[in-house]
Structure formats: structure tokens, C-alpha cells
Amino acid sequence: MSKIGVVLSGCGVYDGTEIHEAVITLLALDQAGVESVIMAPNIGQLHVVNHLSGEEMQMENRNVLVESARIARGNIRDIALVNSTDLDALIFPGGFGVAKNLSDFAMVGADCEIYPDILRLTSEIIEANKPIGAICIAPAFLAKILELMGKSARLTIGNDESTAKNIVQMGSKHTVCNVGDILVDETNKIVSTPAYMVGNRISEVAIGIEKLVEKLISML
Amino acid sequence: MSKIGVVLSGCGVYDGTEIHEAVITLLALDQAGVESVIMAPNIGQLHVVNHLSGEEMQMENRNVLVESARIARGNIRDIALVNSTDLDALIFPGGFGVAKNLSDFAMVGADCEIYPDILRLTSEIIEANKPIGAICIAPAFLAKILELMGKSARLTIGNDESTAKNIVQMGSKHTVCNVGDILVDETNKIVSTPAYMVGNRISEVAIGIEKLVEKLISML
User: Does an H or E element contain A68, and which?
Assistant: First the structure.
């Protein structure tokens, strides 16, 4: 049975993982008979956002691994303890957590830094030429990892010009893509789909993510 | 376009809504071209559970509506402001939040009380003979609402004997049901599926919920 790592970054689109994208990914993997290895870093969230008002909850402190465990129903591992040799591929669902907790892309763009264990695991997966799926905003942070490795890839975050420009600054190539479509970089085995970077409806987001998972599995 | 209310009770299986069940419900409704009206009560959670350790986080206080907004991506209404005449049906995803926040069923079983606005809205939907979908533990709390209305129905929570006994104590009839199946009470227009009360895999939970949504829509 293949094992695909799913990296979470909290629980909620504005300060963590985009919940729909994560659940649709887990569902598509299970439907394909693939084992999901869910993981997250054991660190504090950058901040906590009230998802009703959109405002920061200044007095709140939450942990990325503990909140991600909500999506995983408790079945989650600290990414510091995960070896790349145990995985056949890696998928990053989106949400601001990717750009706020797994990296600081949301604050500094193309000059961002990557959380060390994310960098270690992801670069090992890339070195081993195992496939990576990057959903929503995740391709932007992946461009930085590739840049740090002296590599570049074809990526998409949909049609957001400012984020696309950042990807190009980090040395990768950006291609516009619709919500229900995927962009495939066959050389680097990287599949990306814009999901809620473009989409408004959960059903159209699901179409893109299901294509991504199917393509990724075909690359194993 | 039909409008179906989806009632949330927080964000996470142990102290709120079961996230997978909620997302699969929203996806199935959108795929069917039905509008979801997501709502939750604006009240404090009974408690907050660390989903990694399973332990209560004693110093934490969270609000059911605010946390539910994570699953809804902010597109959620205070249930106190929702009129039954605006809805064609109602669905309750599961999770302990149903038995801890929408009612106190987790603490007192068959003697439980129902949060007043949940009772108002649900009993109006039942009086109007509009369909109701109850997932996972939700049928247990629905049995109490039916009892308070002097009604009873055919329900399932899967095969848990103690919860099934509680349903019978509240005057409804319990039937054992598998994770990928639904139980339909045609007279009361109530559809239930056990989901994670029985299931271990997200894909089998999805089969039951997709059948529930399809059946519910056929009853509109």
C-alpha cells in the first residue's frame, strides 16, 4: 500500500490549513486505496484569526500540530519525527497556514524562510524524485524550497498576479490555471491546482484536487 | 434553488462538529446544486479538547459559532437569526459537539436538554414535514426533540447498544445500520447514517453521507 504524506498547518483557512482542501485530499487518497500519513510541525501558530469576523484574536495562542489534529481526528504525527524514506509522495493542502506557519511567505513574499523540518522533508522527497502535490497557495512556498535547492519548476497558484510574480522571483515558472484543472511538471514530478485561490464553490475545488491526487498516484 | 440548513456545533470531533462529516455533507450538497445555509449557536463550547492528546484544555474557552466558522470559511449564520421558512430541509453532521454543545446528551443521556434555538428551528422543520438528515450521533439528540413534540421515528446511530437504548428510552425506534448505509423514516422524512459512529475510513463514511444527501434531496 502506498503512503502519501499530507502536511497540515493548523485548522482553518485564515490561520491554518484550508479545511475543505485537506478533507477532500484525505477522501481522494482513501478512495484510491492509498494510506495518508498526516503530519504538522509542533510549533505555535503565527496568530489566531476569528473566522466569523476575520479579525485577529490577540489573546489567543494555539499550536499548529494540536489544531491540525482536529482535521486528522487525532491520527497525526509531528513532522520532526517523519522520515522521507517512509513516504512515497507528499501533498500540501492550502490555507494561510502554509504562508504563516510553515513559512513566512505571507509576510515577506519571495524572501521567505521555510520551517526547518518542512524544508528537510520536502527537499529529501524532491531529491528522491518522488512526486509532490501543491494545492492553493502551497506552490508559492514550494518555489522557495526549490530555489534553496538550486532548482525550478512549473507551478500554478491560479491567476493571482502578485503571487505569480513572487514565484517567478524565486526562479520558477508560473502558468495560469483554472480551479478545476491541474498543472503538471513531469520533470520535477510536481502537480499543482489553484483550489480556493480561484474557486468559490467546494465542488469545483474538489474537481481540481481529485485530478491532482489521481495524477500524483499515477506518478508513484 | 433549494436551500438546506447545515447545523454545526464547533470544529473538531471531540468537542465540536466532526470535520470530515461536515465537509463531505457540504460537498455533496454543492455537487447536487443545492445551497447550504450553514449555521451554529452563538454560545460557549462545553469545553475544549486537545485533539492530539485527547485531554481537556482546562484554561481554554471557545465559542461554537466562531469555531464552526472555520469549517464554513466565514460563511455562517447565528442559528438564533435563522427562520425555518427560509429552509427546505435540515442536516446535522455529527461529532461530540452535537451531544455537548447543541444538547447535553453526552452528560445525561435520555434526560438531555436541547439548546432552545436548535429546538425551535428543528421542531418547526419537523412540523412543516420538511426532511431532516441526522449523521453519526445526531439521531440521539433528534430523538429527544421528537419526544418533546410527542413524536417518535425510526433512527440509527449504527450499532452502539448504550446509545441505541437511550433512543428507545426517548420513545423512538432504533435499527442497526452499516457505515455505508442509510436508514429512512419515510413518514417523518428523517434520514440517518452512522458515519464515524461505526466507520473507520473517510471513504466509507462518505458513501453513507452521499446516500443521505441524495435521499434527502429526493424528499424535497
Answer: helix A64-72
Q: What is the DSSP letter of B12?
A: S
Alpha helices in B72-201 (DSSP H): 96-100, 105-108, 116-127, 138-148, 161-169
Q: Do the Cβ atoms of A46 and A37 come closer than 8 Å? A: no
Interface test with A, best of B17, B21, B23 (most A CBs within 10 A): B23
Average pLDDT over residues A147-153: 98
Q: Does B139 reach chain A within 8 Å, measured CB to CB? A: no
Name the nearest CA neighbour of A36 among B208, B201, B205, B51.
Answer: B201
Q: In chain A, what are the domain boundaries?
A: 3-218
Distance CA A9, CA A135 (A): 13
Is B136 one of the catalytic residues?
yes
Judge contact between A34 and A4, C-beta under 8 A: yes
Q: Could you tell me if A81 lies within 8 Å of chain B, comparing CB atoms?
A: no
- Which residues of B fall within a CB distance of 8 Å from A73? 13, 18-20, 51, 196
The residue count of chain B comes to 220
B12-B193-B6 Cα angle (round to 5): 55
Indicate yes or no: CB of B13 within 8 angstroms of CB of A73.
yes
Query: Residues, chain A, total?
Result: 220
> Could you tell me the mean pLDDT of each successive run of 10 residues in chain B, 220 residues long?
97 98 98 98 98 97 98 98 98 98 98 98 98 98 98 97 98 98 98 98 98 98
Per-residue model confidence (pLDDT) at position A27: 98
Please list, in sequence order, all residues whose beta carbon lies within 8 angstroms of the beta carbon of residue B151, skipping any fewer than 6 positions away. B126, B188
B52: nearest CB among A24, A26, A69:
A69
Predicted TM-score (pTM) of the model is: 0.98
ipTM of this predicted structure? 0.98
Nearest by CB to B23, from A19, A54, A66: name it: A19
The architecture in CATH of the region B3-218 reads 3-Layer(aba) Sandwich (3.40)
pLDDT band at A53 (very low <50, low <70, confident <90, very high): very high
Decide: A191 and A174 in contact? Cβ < 8 Å: no
